[in-house]
């Protein structure tokens, strides 16, 4: 957390401070039975708070807009071709293989577990491969169930 002066913090929170002051003043005026509390409340929320927001919150809004714009550009995807999908799956598969290797190197997996999981990953490189693998496993399970019966 960075240290900032009270003035910097006041500038960063100017809109919140203004709305709190407006609320406090009109609420005090209401409780003390002054007749001008309603016009003050309306003027405060319709004029003062928006003006303070326009004066002091521009940088934050611009930064937020820039962040939102960069995030939307990053999330914006063009229609993916089969080649793009297989490349993405290959990258995800490579990450999974790296994680698997790390777990094996740390001793979390036995040799048999590592080999079985690696074979499974290599068989399911693309979504189509994964669907075929699920179908084969489903058929194999049914065959085992029939053999047991």
TrEMBL record:
Residues 67-86, 96-106, 113-123, 131-149 have a biased composition (Basic and acidic residues). Residues 95-122 form the SHOCT domain. The chain crosses the membrane at residues 36-56. Keywords: Membrane, Transmembrane, Transmembrane helix. Residues 58-149 are annotated as: Disordered. The keyword rRNA-binding does not apply. This is Short C-terminal domain-containing protein. The lineage of its organism: Archaea, Methanobacteriati, Methanobacteriota, Stenosarchaea group, Halobacteria.
């Amino acid at each position: 957390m960075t240290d900032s002066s009270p003035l910097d913090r006041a500038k960063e929170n100017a809109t919140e401070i203004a709305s709190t002051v407006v609320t406090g003043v009109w609420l005090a005026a209401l409780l003390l039975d002054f007749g001008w509390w309603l016009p003050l409340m309306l003027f405060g929320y319709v004029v003062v708070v928006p003006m303070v927001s326009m004066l002091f919150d521009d940088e934050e809004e611009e930064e937020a807009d820039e962040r939102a714009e960069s995030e939307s550009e990053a999330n914006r995807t063009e229609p993916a071709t089969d080649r793009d999908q297989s490349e993405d799956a290959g990258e995800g598969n490579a990450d999974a293989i790296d994680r698997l290797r790390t777990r094996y190197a740390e001793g979390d997996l036995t040799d048999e577990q590592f080999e079985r999981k690696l074979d499974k990953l290599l068989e399911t490189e693309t979504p189509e491969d994964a669907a075929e693998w699920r179908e084969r496993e489903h058929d194999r399970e049914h065959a085992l169930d029939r053999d047991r019966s």
